[in-house]
Amino acid sequence: MSRISAPFAAILLAACAVQSSDENGIAIEYTTHQPGVAQWTADDHCAKFGKRAILMRKGPRQSNYGLIPQTNLAEFDCVK
Q1: Nearest residue to 53 via CA among 31, 28, 19
Q2: In this structure, are residues 24 and 77 in contact, taking their beta carbons and an 8 Å threshold?
Q3: pLDDT (tens digit per residue) in 2-16
Q4: pLDDT tens-place string over residues 32-77
Q5: Angle of helix 5-14 versus helix 36-47 axis, rounded to 10
Q6: Domain span at residue 61?
Q7: Quick one: which of 70, 74, 69 has its CA closest to 45?
Q8: 3-state SS, one letter per residue, for the chain
Q9: Cα–Cα distance measured from residue 59 to residue 14, given in angstroms and rounded to the nearest whole number
């Protein structure tokens, strides 16, 4: 990884949090301003098992009384 892409990747990863994961799928909480981060994280996770990520559900999560940005929760299945 180059010096430029390493900090960029760190910023992207900070924008989401994995709630649960296994070889069959992954659930990711992410900020509403960066929806692509969830797909990228799911794609990376499923690729480890030779599969691809398919978005099954997404929905809003409540913010913490306005102290943190609004977040969404996305659930992906890993399929062949």
Answers
A1: 28
A2: yes
A3: 454 544 444 444 568
A4: 888 789 999 999 999 999 999 999 998 887 666 666 668 889 999 9
A5: 100
A6: 5-79
A7: 74
A8: CCCCHHHHHHHHHHCEEEEEEECCEEEEEEECCCCHHHHHHHHHHHHCCCCEEEEEEEEEECCCCCCCCCEEEEEEEEEC
A9: 20
pLDDT at position 76: 96
Residues 30, 74: contact at Cβ < 8 Å? yes
pTM greater than 0.90 (yes/no): no
- By the 8 A CB rule, do 52 and 64 touch? no
Q: For the chain, how many structural domains are there in total? A: 1
**Do 4 and 40 contact (CB within 8 A), yes or no?**
no
What tens digit of pLDDT does each residue of 62-72 get?
Answer: 666 666 668 88
